[in-house]
């Protein structure tokens, strides 16, 4: 599944190379090619390739969306 825009979506980190991030929830405030900024209890910056997340009830693998949001449009 191709995700065109994650900004504004509620996500939950379900797997991470950093165990402290597992279970973190919040709204995606910004997204770059390699990072996602999540605003929950606090704002955190997370590398996309180090996490898998739950978005709209579906698992999204960070490594598969390691592109700028605008570049994902052409990958449909």
Describe this structure as you would to a colleague:
By secondary structure, the chain is mainly beta. The chain is 7% helix and 43% strand. It has a six-stranded antiparallel sheet, with no helix packed on it.
Provide a brief overview of the structure.
With 76 residues, this protein is mainly β. The chain is built from one helix and six strands, in the order ββββββα. The longest helix has 5 residues, at 69-73.
Question: SSE layout and pairings?
Answer:
Elements: E1 10-16, E2 25-31, E3 35-39, E4 43-47, E5 51-55, E6 58-61, H1 69-73
Antiparallel strand pairs: 1-2, 1-5, 2-3, 3-4, 5-6
Q: Which series of helices and strands comes N to C?
A: EEEEEEH
Write the CATH homologous superfamily: Ribonuclease P/MRP, subunit p29
CATH class identity: Mainly Beta
How many strand units?
Answer: 6
- State the separation between the terminal residues, measured CA to CA: 9 Å
What is the CATH architecture annotation? Roll
Which labels suit this protein?
single chain; SH3 type barrels; mainly beta; 76 residues; 6 strands; globular; 6-stranded antiparallel β-sheet
């Amino acid at each position: 599944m191709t995700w065109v825009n994650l900004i504004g979506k509620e996500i939950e980190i379900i797997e991470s190379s950093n165990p402290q991030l597992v279970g973190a929830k919040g709204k995606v405030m910004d997204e770059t090619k390699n990072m996602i900024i999540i605003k929950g209890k606090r704002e955190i910056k997370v590398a996309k390739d180090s996490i898998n997340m739950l978005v709209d009830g579906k698992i999204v693998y960070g490594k598969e969306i390691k592109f700028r949001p605008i570049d994902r449009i052409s990958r449909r």
